[in-house]
Design a protein that fits this description.
Layout: H1 3-13, H2 23-26, E1 48-49, E2 56-59, E3 68-74, E4 80-87, H3 98-106, H4 121-127, H5 134-144, E5 154-164, E6 170-179, E7 182-185, H6 186-194, H7 201-222, E8 233-237, E9 244-249, H8 254-277, E10 283-286, H9 296-303, H10 314-323, H11 333-343, E11 349-352
Parallel strand pairs: 1-6, 2-7
Antiparallel strand pairs: 3-4, 4-5, 5-6, 8-9, 10-11
Helix pairs in contact: 7-8
Length: 378
């Protein structure tokens, strides 16, 4: 069938809002000629000047929605400082205006394969391949990250700064104005870290981040965090028709895990902070533990290969999956079991802190969690 028609039917069938944005919404956006000048910092009382830090972003290839960045630097007292910097979209979206109200109505991100093609921004806007704020995201990306490949363009961040010895412990939430010293892909960042001849500040920062990320990941796993395989694929599009012609499984590198660990740490840190500040109305994300019956299909499948899976707790499940191996079995058997375990999980939910005293996130094995690092979805 016709791609446009089928896309329309798909969105309508699932009640995905995809109508054109109103003039009232568009009027809330800054003009296309707007740019963040260096003088802006003087007008932002309380916004820290982060421009001297070796801040860099690490994203998938072809990513233009660069909304997070990291830095790492040693401190004079022997501790290490880590900064997780998230684009301050709230500077442009004022509470209660038409754009804010539209965002609250759309609320959920919906991905279609066209999203991966940068030439299909109009389709993404019209068809809402990413719902919620994608039209403003396209514009805001140009505003917040004007000419993001240049090293001297100021950007507005909301930052979590953590410090400690070996493991970041103390955290500080602040707003700042910073420079992205490098905009890297995961592969580029990995090559920089692996090149022993590189001694520049950005590479040193990446190596420090990677070392700390390994410690953080090991600690999460020891606490019972689940590592469940859910292969991510990337669509390859025809250059003329923009139809998907192939898909490729995403190759994960150390840098993928590095970024993930600090996004998780920032989200946990911010969750703790907002509960302290707003104990009755903090927006949190919970992941309930599945009932034992949810695991029946996983336990049965594993038993058919003489593998025992323990499901008494997240930690027991994680350890069982780590041990799940059969001599002579296909190498992907463990991956298949982890994919099956994913199907046994409950749906994670957003909730207000006053609604439920149980804030635990089962899959991440953390007492509290929120989504600070997704500014457009926020």
């Amino acid at each position: 069938g016709d791609k446009e028609t089928e896309t329309e039917v798909l969105l309508l069938e699932h009640d995905v809002p995809h109508q054109p944005f109103s003039q009232a919404v568009l009027a809330c956006l800054p003009p296309p000629t707007f740019s963040i000048s260096r003088g802006l910092f003087k007008d932002q009382a309380g916004r820290e000047d982060l421009r001297a830090l070796s801040i860099c972003s690490v994203d998938p290839p072809g990513c233009t929605d660069i909304d997070d960045a990291l830095h790492c630097k040693p401190l004079d007292n022997g501790n290490t400082e880590v900064g997780v910097h998230i684009a301050d979209v709230s500077y442009f979206i004022r509470p209660g205006n038409a754009l804010d109200e539209e965002a609250s109505l759309r609320g959920t991100t919906v991905y279609l394969c066209e999203k991966n093609n940068d030439n299909l921004k109009l389709i993404r806007i019209k068809k809402c391949a990413t719902t919620m704020l994608y039209i403003s995201h396209d514009v805001l990306n140009k505003v917040i990250f004007v000419d993001f490949l240049s090293y001297d363009v100021p950007r507005l961040w909301v930052s979590v700064t953590l410090s400690g010895h070996r493991e970041p412990r103390r955290h500080l939430l602040s707003s700042g104005l910073g420079l992205d010293q490098a905009s890297l892909t995961y592969a580029e960042a990995q090559l920089m870290m692996d090149d022993a001849g590189r001694k520049d500040p950005v590479t040193s920062s990446l190596r420090g981040l990677n070392s700390l990320a390994k410690i953080l990941k090991q600690r999460r796993i020891q606490n019972g965090a689940l590592t469940l395989a859910s292969p991510e694929v990337r669509f390859h599009m025809d250059s003329e028709t923009h139809d998907p012609i192939d898909l490729q499984t995403k190759e994960l590198k150390e840098t993928n895990s590095m970024v993930e660990e600090f996004m998780l740490l920032a989200n946990i840190s911010v969750a703790e902070r907002i509960v302290d500040e707003f104990p009755e109305c903090a927006l949190l994300r919970s992941h309930p533990a599945p009932p034992p019956s949810n695991y029946d299909i996983l336990v049965k499948a594993a038993k058919s290969k003489n593998i025992e899976i323990q499901v008494d707790s997240a930690k027991a499940l994680a350890e069982s999956l780590d041990r799940a191996a059969v001599p002579g079995a296909p190498p992907y058997l463990n991956t298949l079991l982890r994919i099956l375990a994913t199907r046994c999980m409950m749906q994670a939910i957003y909730f207000c802190s006053s609604m439920d005293p149980d804030t635990h996130h089962y899959g991440l094995a953390t007492a509290i969690y929120t989504h600070f690092t997704l500014p457009i979805r926020r």
